[in-house]
Amino acid sequence: MINLKEKLKKISSGFNKSINSVFGSGNIDEELEALEEQLILSDISMSVTEDIIKKVRKRIRKGEEPKEVLKEEIISILNIEKENYFLSDENFISLIVGVNGGGKTTTVAKLGYFLKQRGKKVLLAAADTFRAAGSSQLELWGEKLGIDTIGGEKGADPSSVVFNSLNAFKTGGYDNLIIDTAGRVHTKENLMKELEKTVKVIKGFYPESPEEVLMVLDATIGQNAIVQAREFLKFSGLTGIILTKMDGTAKGGTIITIAKEFNLPVKFIGVGETVDDLYPFSPKKYGELIFEDQ
Predict the structure, then answer these.
(1) Where would you tag: which of 177, 195, 204, 270 has the fewest CB atoms within 10 A of its CB?
(2) What domains are defined for the chain?
């Protein structure tokens, strides 16, 4: 988190400055009204903001310090205790989903590199065969990082790529398989059916897999990320979120909204284009970071 502090300086500085500006008048009602506005401007949804304000109001009327109360409430929302298999010593299969343009394929490469750095033998499956460069992009990443990759031609059945990768995973002595999926097909219904088909193929080999189904979201699109999350939640089995592009124009509130509305933990955040710019997410450290005076 030390390196991440500098990466997220723009987000934490802006959020902290806006929060500091609302406190100090001595009028609780006016401060909370101003706080509500700032939370919404930080990309926290209206419903989540109202819930936060309600809890903060109750606690500060009892004499607790406003900013500390707000920090504790936000950390509480983010602290969803679900295992992150990428931090475990277990062998597992992960499925990465999300719309194209959010950094999904690059994130798959970053995840592979993250596991390789932990001593794991990793296999990547380039099953985004609907996008012209989808499969070749991941294959190039695999070549660059020294990670084996199974791909397919553009327009090929993604499930065939998944099937071939599972065969290789089963016989090749791999510890982890990470599957990149299509982010755009002709209709949303087709997309979800394709994901369900992919999961069915996986369970044909390993009934308890995939252990992780992570949705990649672009943090810079604000409330549109919530719309995307809602669509992918129609596909059951999501275990968490990877939030990308956190070093751009992201305001930080998207994480809070997703955690509260969907009870989904953020497991990684991506803050750049290099393979080192992917960080396991810590609610406590993130909460402390965005409230820290610069």
Answers:
(1) 204
(2) 85-290 (3.40.50.300)
pLDDT value of residue 186:
46
Q: b/e map of 240-252 (b: 16 or more CB within 10 Å)?
A: bbbbbbbbeebbb
Tell me how far apart the alpha carbons of residues 99 and 181 are, in angstroms, rounded to a whole number.
Answer: 9
The 3-state DSSP class for residue 241 equals strand
pLDDT of residue 2: 46
CA neighbor of 206 nearest in space, from 240, 157, 167: 167
Q: Which helix (H) or strand (E) holds 121?
A: none
Rounded Cα–Cα distance for residues 140 and 96 (Å): 18
Paired tokens of 217: 């979201």
DSSP-derived pairing of the beta strands 92-97 and 122-126: unpaired
In the chain, the amino acid numbered 194 is E
Kindly give the parts of the chain with pLDDT less than 50: 1-2, 186
Three-state secondary structure call for residue 199: helix
Q: Measure the CA–CA gap between 158 and 210, rounded to whole angstroms.
A: 16
Please give the pLDDT value at position 265. Answer: 92
State residue 187's pLDDT score. Answer: 61
Sheet holding 92-97, edge to edge: 148-150, 122-126, 176-180, 92-97, 212-218, 240-244, 266-270, 278-280
CA 69 to CA 23: how far, in whole Å? Answer: 12
Q: What is the C-alpha to C-alpha distance for residues 255 and 11, in angstroms, rounded to an integer?
A: 12
